[in-house]
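quick one before i forget lol
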Amino acid sequence: MKKIFFLFLYLYFSYNLFSQQNVKMSEIDFSVIFNERLTDSEKNQLKNGDFVFNSIKSIKNVRINKIKETEQDIETVKKVNPNHLIEVIKILPYEGNENLVERISEIMQDIDAYKEIPYYSEKHERYFQLFEEAEIISISKENEKLIIDERLLMNPLKSYTARIEAENQGDYYFYTLRNTEKVKYLFLNAIKKEKMIAGVSVFRYGENWVIYALGGAYIFHGPFFSDFVEEMFCGRIKSFVLFMFQKLEASRSADEEK
């Protein structure tokens, strides 16, 4: 289950949020945003336009400081009391990405596009759809917050409902996706209601954008179950990330052609 969860979030956060671009790092003071857990190697990855992805054991092990722009993300995931966590960090230059928040907002809310995501199964040596079903149930607004209720089906898990909440404040964007009912595998309740959440914070810092994603879940552990779910989730997360990367890069290229 652990690997499945990691893969799902890795794909979800990374595919379109983290396409590679060189970053103007002279304007970034790492010590303000990040703590000592961000290694020199990871700093170089960020400078080179890559993203940093880590599975972590506890909220206490996050690499980012609890500043105004990340506090909501950290505290939201913390409430799940997760036993599995992933953290994804990406930095992009502001110049050339002035409309990054709008692009990310459109991509993350394009539920129909989820059904286009290909997933390669090593076990079956063929491609499948990552999501067999991605259906919008309702769309509403609460103050400045967009709320999308949806139903997702990702075989071999049972279909489940989820809620997207998104806030766009110009130079700050915050997105969450949480399950609103139990996630089942066969007869097992693998994840209880509202015990899986993914949060994405996008904010401007100097002449750069910082994209910070944190996902957590409290996942059932059982004999003969954990390893299978881990393997299944890893491939799916990877597929989702790659797809989202393509979408973000495609949207940037389209803007440049206009």
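fyi The first helix runs from residue 2 to 14.
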